[in-house]
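Section 3.1: Structural characterization of target chains.
Under the original work plan, the team committed to producing a structural model for every single-chain target entering the pipeline before any wet-lab resources were allocated. The record below documents one such target. The sequence was received from the expression subgroup and is listed exactly as submitted; it comprises 311 residues.
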Amino acid sequence: MTSAAVPVKDSKKPVFASVKHEKKKRQLGLHLLFMVLCILFIVPFLLVLSISFSNERDIIMTGYSFIPKHFDLAAYQYVFQNPQSVLNAYKVTAFNTVVATALSVFIMSMVAYPLSKKRLKGRVAINFFIFFTMLFNGGMVPTYIVITQYLHLDNKIWVYILPYLVNAWHIFLLRSFFSTLPEEIFESALMDGASEFRIFLSFVLPLSKPGLATVTLFCALERWNDWMTSMLYVSKENLITLQYMLQRILINIQFLQEHSNNAAAAKLASEIPSETVRMALAVVAAGPMLLVFPFFQKYFVKGLTIGAVKG
């Protein structure tokens, strides 16, 4: 007696379909979350930009608005009332940012590369010494004395560059990234007769673009936003940075508003579009960096994730 074959249903298909459906739901939820976060981050910048092009009287009467009721350039006219000084400050800041960043990244990468090699003698002691500088430093007064009395860098363009060439945290970030590179490539190059410096230039640097881009962006932001160096070491108007110049404009506005006791000072303070000027200063200061960041974004994210794998 023969028994009829009973068809067996494939029980895996519903399971796979359910998993795929759940995965799509999670992806949709993450996309919505990041869209909301993007809006939350972008909205303040749009509001600042809108206020900088608004009329000061409209801001006082109706408050902030994403669309200016009356398009007005008074804030930017006040900021650029001396365009030659602002242009010169841009040049000094750009020179400081480009030259200091390039030298700093190259020198720190040369320090970090040997520290990523376990065969380096005294590696632990050198790492501890560099880490120690992150916890303790000489302080502002000794640093000021060294820079002005011994190095004589005050009122010189190099005061923005030489004292800030090395950052311990950036060295450790680069060291962590270099340690993820495959050793087989370097061993093959050594067997072919390449020197360590040739390997560093021809293999390490090209393979480390994400890590180098990350540190480059950090260094560029630090140099671009630096204003204290101008305040401490520079008294010549043709050597001050953009950030320090904008800060002085803001301080002058606050001073006029707080000390407008007599009629002349009160009239002068009332003519300054203070609220819109503050937003225009933010746009002028942050605008170039906001334009540059998208070009580094891919390498920046990759460099952070890879550099965080090993420590």
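The two ends are 72 Å apart (CA to CA).
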